[in-house]
Amino acid sequence: MAKIRVVNLVVTTDLEHKLHLEKIAATLPNVEYNPEQFPGLVLRIKEPKTSSLLFSSGRVVCTGARDILSAKKAIHKVIESLKKVKVKIKIEPVLKIQNLVGSGELGFDLNLNMLAMKLRNVEYEPEQFPGLVHKMKKPFHASFLLFSNGKMVCTGTKSEKEMEACLEQLIKDLKKVGFSS
User: Fold this and answer.
1) Predicted local confidence at residue 140, as pLDDT
2) What's the CATH number of domain 9-97, 1.10.260.40, 3.30.310.10, 3.90.25.10, 3.40.50.2000?
3) 9-97 and 106-176: same fold?
4) Model-level pTM?
């Protein structure tokens, strides 16, 4: 029986407030800021364990949460941290899910060499990496990383329902080429 669970959620929001990243970097702990390499500031939160990219425009990208409630908690902790540098966010941020990453098991082994020949939209270079990448085109735009022991990673979906539907489609595709649970 195939199963998958969310292991990472990527959300974005706009704080609708310009941010002075140099001041934030000089004041707050748990931040990384190197504007010569990247224009965003990284703010790490311990609980829930997340990392948020803050941009001077007020845009925020939060990654590492496993569910939307944890992502909301993380964004509120970012806002609390900003209060320490006299930045008062007056809005309730609206979070938009950009990507879910799921991890799971198919429940059966895979012959990746055979899959690379029979399945469409795949990348497989075992000399470089032991997993096969399968990109779904329709009706979803998700990608699966498949391993010979039946373990998998799914990325590119925006909801758990969509991730489950992608898993169902993957199983149908595998059955068409000779694999079954």
Assistant:
1) 80
2) 3.30.310.10
3) yes
4) 0.88
β-pairing, 3-14 with 96-105?
Answer: antiparallel
Q: Which residues contact 169 (CB under 8 A, 6 or more apart)?
A: 136, 139, 140
Task: Name the nearest CA neighbour of 136 among 100, 165, 98, 175.
Answer: 165
> What phi and psi, each to the nearest 5 degrees, are found at residue 122?
-125, 155
For the 106-176 domain, the top CATH level (class) is alpha beta
Q: Which of 80, 92, 86, 100 is nearest to 14 (CA)?
A: 92
Q: How confident is the model at residue 37 (pLDDT cuts 50, 70, 90)?
A: very high
For the segment 47-61, the average pLDDT, to the nearest whole number, is: 97
* CB-based contact 150:2 (threshold 8 Å): no
User: Residue 4 carries which side chain, given as an amino acid letter?
Assistant: I
d(CA 113, CA 107): 18
**Token duo for residue 28:** 């707050």
